[in-house]
Amino acid sequence: MSVAVSYTSREEIDVHRFSLGVSVGVPLLALFIQVFLPVRLSLLTVFDLPLLVTIFFAVSRRRPVPGLITGALIGTVEDALSGRPIGLNGIAKTMIGYLASSVGVRLDVDNPGSRFLMTFGFFLIHRFIYLVIDLGLVGASEPWNWGHVLVGGLSNGLLAVPLFAVLDRFKQRN
Amino acid sequence: MAVLFVQVIMLATQVRRPDNPKNSSSGGTRLIRVWAVTVFTPVERAFIGTGHFFRNTWHNYVDLHDVRKENARLQQELQRLRMEQVKWKEDAEQAHRLQALLGFKERFISQTVAAQVIGTSGSEQSRMIYIDKGSRDGLRPDMAVITPDGIVGKVKDVYSSSSQVLLINDRDSGAGVKLTKSRLQGILHGTPQGETLVNDIMNDEKIEAGEELVTSGGDRIYPKGLPVGAVTNVAMDRDNPPFLAITVKPAANLSRLEEVLVVTKIAEESPVEAQNSGLTRAADILAQRLPTVHKTEEKPGGGPSAQTGNASATPSTPKKPTDGTAVQNKQTKKAIASGGSTATATNGVSTAAPSQTPTSKTKKTGPKSARPDATKTAKPETPPPSTTENPPE
Lengths: 174, 393
Fold this sequence. Notes:
The complex is a heterodimer.
Chain A: E1 16-17, H1 20-36, H2 49-61, H3 64-82, H4 88-106, H5 112-138, H6 146-167, E2 172-173
Chain B: H1 2-15, H2 28-61, H3 67-101, E1 106-120, E2 128-131, E3 144-146, E4 151-158, E5 163-167, E6 174-179, E7 185-190, E8 196-202, E9 212-215, E10 227-236, E11 243-250, E12 259-269, H4 282-289, H5 325-338, E13 341-342, E14 360-362
């Protein structure tokens, strides 16, 4: 008799889905805020709202294919607006979407503490993937700044807790 | 894997031709960018417009209690600038005479378009902004973008009703600059951290913190003489030992840009020979030095600088090229405040005027040059004209 190994404390894993309006509207709103708010408050560029939305949808759906497609679409639109080569954020967020949906199957991702740690970790991974692509494929030379990355990870982790709580209201039980 | 593969291929097609950066967003990715910008910029424009409406309402109807004091202060400043203008007159005319003798040609800002900042790249990896003017307004790639304080960047991608501007602190940017004291020239670069550096000056040069930089005009994008910023730190370039790494603080506040000017037309013209400067009457000079003294009515044919009619009814025309950036900045501020296309002339030696010198040669056909006609003398009774008074070309 084989026993499935899972790190989750729940007996069954909740798989959620979202309405079409939420699935399209929330990422668009996140992208809009990301490009609009720094006009007045440049410090807000430390937050990566498209990444947070990617993580949220991926861990909530708990299916790798929708997770990576969500990440790919959000990242591609983000690249289109950023002026940098299209694919940098696309590839990075595709991988984050896949990883987040895989993690969502195994871990309890509804706890605020786990959400903070998960977002912090994914932010670091995202920046690392981005840097590797930037160095390897684009040829740019952006130094890895630990202090800046850690501050970004902490900021986004803290923001993820209330943001995910708000987005939980749009979940529909499968 | 297929999704990743497609994106890698897409990325590869964009970076395979680094020798031609203008085509970096061409082809298939151009369509994606156009779609994204078309979706987002109208919403951003609506938000910005709404914000400005409420803010202008506040300023226009509620926040007027300081207007009298502000007006008095501006009047005093105007008087001071007019006196300063007279002080620089002789030097400027002498410089123009020498430049004319040498067949020297200068590039002046002839026309600008005021634009509002409606968005950013939203990323720390790229320093760009979106403005609400595009190809419909005459914008094209590689046009200089400035503020009254200094240069901002250049237009990168142009869409129908919006444009993307590459800021000078982006790592892909570059601008030809010149140190004002040492007269050394270099190239201003952005860094991934958003700093601005000049790192192609040898380490045996003496450069002090606080020294200001202006555009050199060598890049053929930014007109010569525009303020760039000030040196904040000078150190050895660790990656390039014989050279210095000069950190520059931009004069324009790049993190809080609201309105900018896009230089849409640059005139290239010979400096005007100040051949009539010696014929300026003593009465005119006296009136200039004492601006509050009203000019007496002149007789027709009283000399090359004589003008008839009621002085107060005559449209004001700038006659004296100035060398102060303060005047230039105030004019640019006024141009921005007007919110429309304006003609202005900067470069530290010229002010706007509807007249055009016979020697002027603009790069584009049609519009008049903003170069003042130096063969006339100023009417001291009338204040120097604002560039906003000129109709859009």
